[in-house]
Design brief:
The protein is an alpha+beta fold. The protein has 16 helices and twelve strands. The strands form four sheets. The protein has a five-stranded mixed sheet. A hairpin with a 2-residue loop joins β6 and β7.
């Protein structure tokens, strides 16, 4: 089994991984299909080919559970659908799935469109906005309003806006940290995180208790979770709370980071912006925002979204075999830690020529297993249709009305948290008529 070069005593590859995680993960393909790295004393086996990743996610998925990253995350976000395993995961996924059926998700389009339009209404010509923050707030608002469609949703949204940024940063650090005990040290950063957790959990607990007590008939995610039954029983308030936290994290991070990068790329690729404008103007026909019926015609917009999901894919996911497995001609024991990087797969030049070029017109890879923005198999992100529809609607709404240009004297660079985010993304909106 090849070991990645550069291993240091005690730390292994941890410093290199921390210094440049995306570059390090991309470099491993040249060393083999399965490459061993060491994060401190822990050996981790990195899968670098679409075929092996597909086998783990789909072909032999029953032989694997989630792995170390998800063990760490479970202690922070709870035992929701992302972090749970085995019978608990299967039961909860069956109970949650109806809330994300394609026909139900289509009903959320109006919430998404109205929220995106309100955001666009709030911008002032020439007044810089922090796009990454704006998109995070937008996607959080959309998640909250689809989870809880009552008058309390705005209060919940306001409470979560205070706690979520601190919470997301803390989740990422605690998930990837090789020394989880550091989170227990009573330093200011940990106290801020603990306060954010308490605030967020408290707000969600009050919301669940109110919804259960009133027994409302709202057609939202929370109502579906309260009504869901499997084997004759429903979820406890704690289980529902864990699922809501999971939906907040998953429903905010991926979509908001992808949207921020999309507007960054549009600003640096005028030909892409021109084609988006042409399509959006033709489809909306003087309307300021799209409806669900417009989505099938926004084909180029969807390709821009897909390219952003490729170009800025998830840094890393993990799995752990529950039995000995043979991968790439090598036997790995039960309990071994496996890692694969959607980002690295999406930047393999064999599959994606000129992988660093943002190109919505690039041909789909011959090996469709090489595109996994939402994971794959039975554990693929349950909200993928929700996220895709949301991103297309937001892009079309903004492009119909505004042109965003980079603020001067700022260099954007990617930062790895649970996703790939821009360090900062200040941009200046100009109305379309004046662009």
């Amino acid at each position: 089994m090849p070991t990645a070069p550069g291993r240091k005593a005690v730390l292994g590859h941890a410093l290199e991984f921390r210094r440049d995680p995306l570059g390090f993960l991309r470099s491993l393909r040249s060393h083999g299909d399965v490459v061993r790295i060491h994060l401190g004393p822990l050996p981790v086996y990195v899968l670098t080919t679409p075929g092996l990743v597909h086998r783990v996610l789909v072909g032999e998925a029953g032989k694997y559970d989630k792995g170390r990253l998800f063990d760490n995350a479970r202690g922070v976000i709870g035992n929701g659908i992302i972090t749970s395993a085995g019978a608990v995961h299967r039961r909860h996924r069956r109970m949650i799935q109806p809330a994300f059926h394609r026909t139900v998700v289509a009903e959320y389009a109006e919430v998404m469109s109205a929220a995106a339009s309100a955001m666009a209404d709030s911008w002032k010509p020439g007044q810089a906005i922090e796009v990454a923050e704006v998109m995070r707030n937008l996607t959080l608002g959309i998640v909250v309003r689809t989870m809880v469609s009552t008058d309390s949703d705005r209060r919940l949204e306001s409470e979560l806006l205070e706690s979520l940024p601190v919470f997301l940063a803390g989740v990422a650090w605690r998930t990837y940290s090789p020394a989880p005990f550091l989170a227990k040290i009573p330093i200011p950063a940990n106290r801020r995180f603990d306060a954010a957790v308490a605030g967020m959990r408290g707000a969600l607990i009050r919301t669940v208790e109110t919804a259960r007590a009133t027994g409302g008939e709202n057609h939202d995610v929370l109502a579906m979770l309260l009504a869901a039954r499997n084997d004759g029983s429903g979820m406890t308030d704690k289980q529902i709370n864990d699922e809501l936290v999971t939906l907040l994290v998953a429903g905010t991070e991926t979509a908001s980071s992808a949207l921020a990068w999309i507007f960054h790329e549009i600003a640096h690729n005028p030909e892409i912006e021109a084609r988006l404008r042409e399509e959006v103007d033709a489809v909306l026909d003087c309307r300021s925002r799209p409806a669900v019926a417009d989505l099938p015609a926004l084909t180029y917009t969807r390709r821009v979204v897909d390219e952003a999901l490729r170009h800025y894919g998830l840094p890393a996911l993990m799995r752990r075999p529950t039995v000995p497995v043979n991968l790439g001609g090598r036997w790995l024991p039960a309990g071994a830690e496996l890692l694969f990087s959607p980002y690295a797969l999406h930047h393999d030049p064999v599959t994606y020529p000129e992988p660093d070029r943002f190109d919505p017109d690039r041909e789909s890879p011959t090996d469709r297993r090489a595109f996994i923005p939402f994971g794959g198999g039975a554990r693929q992100c349950i909200g993928n249709e929700f996220a895709l529809m949301e991103m297309v609607i937001v892009v079309a709404t903004v492009v119909a009305r505004w042109s965003l240009r980079p603020a001067p004297d700022h260099t954007v660079r990617p930062v790895v948290t649970g996703v790939v985010v821009p360090n900062r993304l200040p941009m200046i909106p100009t109305p379309r008529l004046a662009a």
